[in-house]
Queue: 2 jobs
Job 1
Amino acid sequence: MRGGRLLRSPVLWVGVLFAALLLRIDALQPLLQLVFPGIEPVIYNRDSFLSLFLSQLGLVAVASLAASLVGVALAVFVTRPAGRDFRAMVSALATVGQTFPPAAVLAIAVPMVGFGARPTVIALFLYGLLPIIENAVAGLEGVPYGVREAAEGMGLSAWQRLYQVDLPLAAPVILTGVRVSVTIAIGTATIGSTVGALTLGTPIFDGLVANKLPFVLEGAVLVALFAILTDLLFARLERWLQPAAD
Amino acid sequence: MIEIDKVTKSYRERVVVDSLSLTVGAGELCVLLGSSGCGKSTTLRMINRLIPTDSGSIRVGGEDVTLVPAEALRRRIGYAIQSIGLFPHWTVEDNIATLPRLLKWREPRVRDRVSELLELFRLDAPSYRGKYPHQLSGGEQQRVGVARALAADPELLLMDEPFAAVDPITRDALQGELAHIHRATGKTIVFVTHDIEEALRLATVIAIMDSGQIVQLGAPLDILERPANDFVRDFVGRQGLGLKLLSVRKVSDRLRRGETAEGEPLALDASLGEALSAMTARRTDRLPVCDAEGRQIGVIALADLVR
């Protein structure tokens, strides 16, 4: 029964397709040569797709992890009595971070921290903060008043209320924010290739510069699969996190 | 058990509790009764320091509440509220065990305590302990809420309109259970309500509140028979006063000892209201009365009700 459910799961199929393309894209060489005659080489070969993927995964993981920690910490702060006055300011700052185009963040960051991974991580971090803060604030404020009053009235300390009541109850909503943030970060990370970060966007930009459409296609398809697979995995996690009820 | 001494609380310019003093003895079930906005909930919440006082002092068990850390104080005081506030991500067992586990009770003792409390509220322990709050009816949720408040065997129980949101039949059952628990455990309880019938049924002492002050303090019968002023008279309700008196007075006050009558006997601690109801239903004017062991000890007659 478990095997049947696994076979019907889109996570499995998208995952298999993604892994196959990542490792054995050269198997498509005859097909691509047929579709794009006269382009040589037809498959991007300056870096392996696996190393590009791992590099992008690292950038996204570092930026999203930092954005999640900072975002949830800020949301916790502005939903406690001591930080309530800062709520509007934190929301405004996060919104500014979101309206700033990532390309502009890269342009400003490069002179300060140099080319490569660092400006990309900074841009992804700032860009990913808003959905996490917004969802975490909504989740924490969504804890029913009666539940909070009961927890306080029973004598749970502020930390105990946060760890045992507020955060577990807000977790599904917080996770939705992280999911949105990570999915955006995967797409946005490709722009990092313009400042020298290695991502699956690198073949896209190389292909555009050298007018080699197959490179663009290969990079774009792999990035899309990467984003879809991540989103599906988060959906799984969300379902698993839903109250253990029923 | 509780000594409230000239406590005042205002929000901005509005005085909510106005130099209020009240002493509740150990084992009493004191009902704070009043309409909304009279300061009864604020008074209750100042006892466990959910709301700080502006002036005056509150002592619980002889100890000034502001001299104890708030969390330590609250762990000694059970707290049950209208919205119940069960933790939706925890099972019934985990909810009830919240405080015992915070207090680092050993797990077998926690489990025994949960079973004991579930049985006290007539919930079958094996089938209920693993359920989640959303799987319970409103009445069951409130039973678990009160069980959770009693879990660490607090010296004092504060209840803020706990039964206001459940249907009348369930409320009646819950009131019966609370009265039973109060008799069985002898806990001191402070109970806030706006419902006069509920107050008359449960209280050993009623404090009627208006505009942040206590207008009258007394036993239920005192309040009905000797209202301090027109406010109390209006609040108690001029209509149906006679029936309320019957619901508070006991058969034991009017018993004719030694006489006998036919039929199903009444209990000695039944109210005269129950006696009237039984007489009306059975079309009789005399009913036998038995004591706690079921021995017939006398008779109550219709004429005794209006003596």
Note: Chain B has two domains: 2-244, 250-305.
Job 2
Amino acid sequence: MLQGSIAMTPATGMSPPATHGWADIATARHRTSPLRWGLSLFLALAALQVTYFLFSNPRFEWPVVGKYLFSPNVLQGLGTTLVLTVVAMVIGTVIGTIAALALLSDFKPARWAAQTYLWAFRGTPLLIQLIFWYNLAYLIPSISIGLPFLAPWVEWPTNAVITPFLAALLGLGLAEGAYMTEIVRAGLSSVDTRQHDAARALGMTPTKAFFRIIFPQAMRFIIPPTGNQVIGMAKATALVSVIAMNDLLHSVQIIYNRTYEIVPLLMVAVFWYLVVITLLYAFQSRLERYYSKGHRRDTTQVVPASEQA
Amino acid sequence: MQKPNTASTQTGPVLRLHNVLKRYGSFQVLNGVSLDIDEGEVVAVIGPSGSGKSTLVRCIHQLETIEGGSIYLNGELLGYKQEGTVLRQLGPKDIALQRQQLGMVFQQFVLFPHMTVEENVMEGPVQVLGDSVADARTRAHHLLGRVGLGDKLTAYPQMLSGGQQQRVAIARALAMRPKVMLFDEPTSALDPELVGEVLNVVSDLAKAGKTMVVVTHEIAFAREVATRVVFMEGGRIHEQGEAKETLSNPKTDRLRAFLSRVM
């Protein structure tokens, strides 16, 4: 470790420790504080305690959990939750991007429309919105396509169009869009305005500049909060059970209402929620890595500043 | 590359500015600028801060809208079209088409940080001109070799020095085969020891006969490389003329005072 041979003697009277000459901090040990030792011990004991509690408490009824974990009803509920999460997020992201562009545009009517949308859909509870879409037929008995105030071209009864699934998608997607609007707007705003100039200077149309230059750079700022939204959405889908959608939570509720095995069946739901969220998190990490290219601290290709003058 | 001084065979100046007006709020940045630039000319625009030099090139590139006067590129009115007796504003697509004929190099380089050096240079030709990826790559390699960065093709802008980034930015602008290159203080954001490498590239372009408008604070560079010097003050062209002659024997007191301050 220590090389006494490279030691140099100082010129002045301040003598370094004998035999080793100058100290070399490369050989130093990391500092360990007693507080950290204590905390580590405490956390280890707590982890042990929780594990013991999970496995020793008979009321978790793990055999029951195992029995229902892959039951067709639960898996179907899981499928509904997944489909709702993905489709509602896609709807929300598309709406959010459009509304964010409207908010950032210099066209005032578009800005006002987007602001009103945000105000209404962020300002009311999601539960109310879901029930509202589900009961749309009460307000509008039939849905028609045509020009305002003129006779419609085609017409359908609302209850045939707005199925519980569509009501759930409308509710979740429109509410999500309002939150995504703010996320996308923040992302787009954090791209250096000079990037717009550079894109335009290359002769790009505004659309091309947006998709090739601005949006890819904004993604770096959009992905982390969107990850939060997706996770929130996966769990918010549990709300749709109020409009008779058979999601993951609803599927276990149906079973425990019959068997009264509440805790083990909730553990089944918890297991699947955690699986879904772990997968989503892994996907988010990959996406983040992709969109951070050119920004990573990559030490393999550092270039001396004054090379090739 | 274009041949130098072939203006006589052309129909007229490549770039014509007539009485251009530009205002920021109540501040009149450009107060009636008229300027004709022939093919192969290298025009250095000098002047104190706030005299409107940067605004001038930004207006030529339509990154700023002008409030009065007109700018023509090869006889084509920029930003507007004549329909009978009325002038109509062009849409974004037509303006994009006009911009493709002008190359722009910014003070702050403004490379695309999410693309490699090579991708930065290929972006315009592939996405805007519709060149094939293979052709664009060959050309990008050629241009990057010309600015001395043939070994940095796959580096990201963040890994490069300021001087290297600015040379990539020049290659990126050249890749669009512009009729005129515009430089907005290309060396002002660089450390002093990196200024030379960028100016060398600009000099090489001048020697190759490229038509250029260079806003600069480097008087020595203007004297060496420019064919004409334009001195701006208060949003107007105060004095202009052949570069060496104008910088050695300024006719106006203002230019004389300015030169004594910056040299």
Note: The first strand of chain B starts at residue 15 and ends at 24.
